[in-house]
Design goal:
Length: 299
């Protein structure tokens, strides 16, 4: 879905249909369905002191950090002097709710509908995309398991050349190449979920002095539940729900022990790290080092 972030009280004024024109310093060519996001940014002091504006709001309990309504963006008008004067004279409430100056742009909104259940999200600049979980899974459905080497060749089998020749892809490269191991696919998932709250990525590794099997996976929190989003590991592809983050991590760990280690392992050699976004094009060794600098999780 396409989303536009606004500071309060302007997002709520749109939701309550008190404001149907969003004023911006730039033009947009986009037309169509648009969701309105109430920014986490605090209300400015001068805005709070604007009593006429603040009194327009029915419910002053502002939903900071949520997508709260949808509408249709039907037009974008460059403001002339005459346009500004007309708004000031004939549409005083709309004029009060925007920044009307010659040379700015009026984004015309219609068909405003509040969401029954607002969506928690991080705001972004301009018009941005929010992807629901099933949309993300669908966007990734054609991505095969495999890897790209340092010469940009595709490999569908992780063989003896992987350790020396592998390079971590960027999200855009995974989408374009339609191939990636879990290390790569996590970065595309991270990209699609950049508006989500509490997204975490983990590196599970078994140090056995041979091939050191690993799995990376992504989790997120939503409405007091915890979710494991899995695409690369075909056996468990899907979205799995848990009551706690600890339950989630234990389940992934136990599945890894059963399916990847055949239940033969030394507990001290199995390590879980929470890691941050890595740079693109890391080698295998560099990726290990990056993850090992993350937070070690004890289960």
């Amino acid at each position: 879905m396409k989303v536009l972030s606004l500071t309060e009280p302007y997002a709520t004024l749109i939701k309550e249909k008190k404001k149907q024109i969003e004023t911006r310093s730039f033009r947009t060519n986009y037309r169509g369905e648009l969701y309105i996001h109430a920014s986490s940014t605090a209300i400015k002091k001068e805005t709070k002191n604007n009593k006429k504006l603040m009194q327009l709001v029915d419910n002053p309990s502002f939903p900071h950090g949520y997508i709260i309504c949808k509408c249709n963006l039907v037009n974008c008008i460059e403001m002339t002097k005459e346009y500004v004067e007309d708004m000031k004279k004939n549409h005083p409430q709309e004029y009060l709710c925007g920044d009307y100056q010659e040379g700015r742009f009026a984004w015309i909104l219609e068909d405003i509908v509040p969401l029954e259940t607002p969506l928690k999200a991080k705001g972004q600049l301009g018009i941005w995309n929010y992807y629901r979980e099933l949309e993300i899974m669908d966007l990734m459905k054609d991505i095969a398991y495999g890897w790209i080497d340092k010469n940009n060749n595709k490999h569908h089998i992780v063989d003896n050349h992987f350790s020396d020749d592998y390079r971590l892809q960027s999200p855009q490269e995974v989408s374009k190449n339609q191939i990636g191991v879990c290390w790569d696919q996590i970065e595309l998932e991270r990209y699609y979920m950049k508006a989500y709250e509490n997204v975490k990525t983990y590196f599970l590794v078994y140090y056995n002095h041979q091939n050191c099997p690993t799995h990376t996976f992504l989790t997120y929190q939503k409405q007091q539940k915890y979710y494991w989003f899995e695409h690369a590991w075909n056996l468990f592809q899907g979205i799995h729900e848990y009551q706690s983050q600890e339950d989630l991590l234990l389940d992934v760990r136990n599945k890894f022990i059963e399916k990847e280690l055949n239940n033969h392992f030394q507990k001290s050699n199995l390590i879980l790290y929470e890691y941050q976004k890595p740079a693109s094009h890391l080698s295998t060794e560099e990726f290990y080092k990056h993850c090992e600098q993350g937070k070690k999780i004890f289960l």
